[in-house]
Here is the input.
Amino acid sequence: MKKACIISVGNELLNGHTVDTNAAYLSGELFSTGIPVGGVYTVGDDIVSILRAMNLAAGDADVVLMTGGLGPTDDDITRQVFAKFLGRELEFHEELFEKIEDFFVRRSLKMPEKNRIQAYIPAGAKAIANDVGTAPGIMAGLKDKLFFAMPGVPFEMKKMFKESVLPELERFGQGQAVAVKKLRCFGAGESTIAEMMGDMMMRGRNPLINCTVSYGVITLHIIAEAEDKAKALKMAEDDERRLRGILGELIYGTGEQSLGEVVGQELARQHKTIATAESCTGGLLAKLITDIPGASKYFLQGLVTYSNSAKIKELGVSAELIEKYGAVSEEVSASMAGGVRKTAGTDFAIGITGIAGPDGGSEEKPVGLVYISVDCGRGCETRRFIFSGDREFIRFRAAQTALNMVRLRLKT
Here is the structure.
């Protein structure tokens, strides 16, 4: 199967000033085309480094995509390295120069002399039109492999890729296809899910199943390769059905769905409403719910009762209860959920109280201790958790866990 490599060029990518979004975008686009990415290289504006990356990429892949280094300044040297790699001289193209000059004329500007270099491309290579900038791209073939250089500016690169590079790759990649399915899981750790899946995660298997983790959400990537899209898709779908049978309710969604989106859709479908009362999560749970367009159909109210007095005044939690059990307790969490459900008049309500740290913990109540309650009028479920990690992770994991509790409750 033909594979691709991506080379991102620019000192700004190495010093932390710019995030390389181009590589992520191109990786996704190449996958959908049926040409998987075998490697990504990030190099500075240095002739030796770029040339080394091109040689390494050419050894690993059939397609090499480069971004960056096509500007008019002295540090933009991709075209020079491209020519050196091909063993050819740079040639001046009058028609490219006229297009660059016209770019400035249309804006009533005088073209700096430095932009002239952008009209040079390696001999025998093909210029790729850039309708939104001054830097034309470059395309060249060498030993049955394809090489492309595109601007580093994301907007220019994406337009050039879609209009000019993608059609070339689709022709080049005929006879192979990749289909990807994503299953989103919550409620068990990565190792537990891997054990449940058995040999389905073996390397070298087709479909290949990869796993990524973010704040407790396990995403399973089912990657099927075949000679055509229909066959690859069927292979991925067959594995999806098998995984659903194995993992059951641990799977909450597909693609890029969030727990907030899935819970919101089910609330709307059942014509149910929800409210939240948060302490340690500081409104994060309400944010995850209202991040979804149309949340006003089911989300009625969210209260952040950080202090004990707020819990008493806004939610009706009794001072005696707090005094006896403490603000971080099963009893207070349940009272918070019941209080906000009564105040808002909703079908469901969530109460969260805990210790997110980094301070405030004790031997009896350590940092990471969180109580989450879901009240739905026919009983209140309260669960005790101890989450590890920093303050951000504890808060996010608590909010995600609360949503998952509601998701499962909506199924009963």
In short: The longest helix spans residues 391-410. The mean pLDDT is 96. Residues 275 and 345 are 9 Å apart (CA to CA). The radius of gyration is 28 Å.
